[in-house]
Amino acid sequence: MRLVWFRNDLRCHGHTPLTQALAGGDAVTALHILCPDQWDAHGVAPARRWFVLHSLLELGESLAARGVDLHVLDGGDFDGSVTALEHFVAEQGVTEVFCNREYPLNELNRDRAVARRLEAQGVRIHGFDDGVLVPPRALHTGKGTPYTVFTAYKKRWDVWMDDLQPEAVPAPDWPGGQGRFVGRDRVERALETLSVPDSVTALWHPGEDAARGQLKDFVEQHLGDYKARRDFPAEPGTSGLSAALSAGTLAPLDAYLAARPALQDAKAREGAATWIGELAWRDFYRQIMHRFPSLATGAPFRPETALLQWSDNEEHFQAWCEGRTGYPLVDAAMRQLVQTGWMHNRLRMLTAMFLTKHLFIDWRKGERFFMAHLVDGDFAANNGGWQWSASTGTDAAPYFRVFSPVRQSHRFDPQGRFIARYVPELATADDKTIHEPWKQPLMTPDYPTTIVAHQGVKQRVESAFRAARDAWNQQNGDAS
Ligand SMILES: Cc1cc2nc3c(=O)[nH]c(=O)nc-3n(C[C@H](O)[C@H](O)[C@H](O)COP(=O)(O)OP(=O)(O)OC[C@H]3O[C@@H](n4cnc5c(N)ncnc54)[C@H](O)[C@@H]3O)c2cc1C
């Protein structure tokens, strides 16, 4: 018996383990192991859990309709999932396991334990890399080290993709007939324990059918304009596919292949190339997470930044979380996150920089808060984005770069349409006031005053980073 173990790859299309397992006519069964305690430990948002569990329901139906059984077990946490898998394999007489690799530390440790225990019983494990376009150990610099700067990585990434000219994963050779969905009730019970607001469930569409439809619409309607429109949060300029890519209801290769033809179209080329570049960013952060496992333990990529003396101002942190900083675009963004489970990329950078530069609060607090709300919460991308914004990471935004919330607001939400959508207190403010309400306090009486001034932030950040670097040099015996 062959087993396909589904993890964050809840789809039938573009799934090499499934296609390979079904090739050759052996009996095949499928498994997913719920790990609610691991979700708790990783601080995964109810929105993401809801998205994953509904996607799992759809997967179970799709597999069953094509003649493959899906079993859903409850492992508790990753350790429990190893034991659950071991029992399942023994009970069902499984001789080969097919799955996609996962790269963060806890997942790697789980898979190492699985390999040790199953291989000791003579079970063969076949791992694949459908979760990325380029596997995390494929590319390295001339010195044999991992890339830590995106532009250099991307050059090699492009060469790899051009050389490979990947094709879609062939459709599985389905056995036909009706399969069983064993443990559906477990998924339903897990869904019942969640409290997810309607403002989230109305917006997101779990499952692979929805993801494929959304990809098609995006490529047909928005891909060509992506470069020009992607930075404006009031516009539907980006794909909104991050939740699907994160839960694996969409394969990154299928996303890439859908966009690739537009590279030959003079009008759409720029948009397509820029969007494909975002898929490369996704790979980049996965390879960073894989090659620098200490990141998964909360360490900053730049060791000297571990010595930064962050502020512990809880009132400031709460104001940021609740969208009450007095900076309209920051507040609109934070309210978007809490209400919808998603935030536009430009605003993720802005709010993360605001927390870590203006308020000088530890990026790990922001990283956790994002994870606790994002429908697309993805450890590697979230950690990478936070460390980039805080200037503690790879490719770091230089620490002297501090976004001005007012300039960003004028540039990327010029008429204040996005702000008006999420900050009702400012909905009737004019085009100028909506960016700087403190200039017209009588017209915006319900909106909070700014909790920190923009002026002086850059200098404070510079001196904090200098102090951390000096302390680091001293600790490490380097006086330079
Ligand atoms: C502080 C911070 C936290 C972030 N946290 C997450 C997260 O938890 N999960 C997540 O998927 N993305 C995260 N991102 C990256 C990015 O903001 C989102 O992927 C993007 O906003 C999702 O919207 P979209 O699907 O419309 O993206 P599109 O613009 O349509 O991009 C297509 C896909 O490329 C990938 N992508 C785009 N930008 C990035 C990026 N900078 N890094 C890595 N992958 C990228 C995503 O999978 C995305 O769906 C974070 C960025 C920052 C600055």
Gross morphology is: globular
Domain module count: 3
Largest sheet: 6 strands, parallel
**What is the helix fraction of residues, given as a range?**
40-55%
Structural class determined from secondary elements = alpha/beta
Strand order of the largest sheet: 5-4-1-2-3-6
Average pLDDT, all residues: 96
Q: Identify low-pLDDT runs.
A: none
Reported by name, the CATH topology of the largest domain is: DNA Cyclobutane Dipyrimidine Photolyase, subunit A, domain 3
Protein name: DNA photolyase
Keywords: Chromophore, FAD, Flavoprotein
InterPro entries: Crypto/Photolyase_FAD-like_sf, Crypto/Photolyase_N_sf, Cryptochr/Photolyase_FAD-bd, Cryptochrome/DNA_photolyase_1, DNA_photolyase_1_CS_C, DNA_photolyase_N, Rossmann-like_a/b/a_fold
Family: Belongs to the DNA photolyase class-1 family. Belongs to the DNA photolyase family.
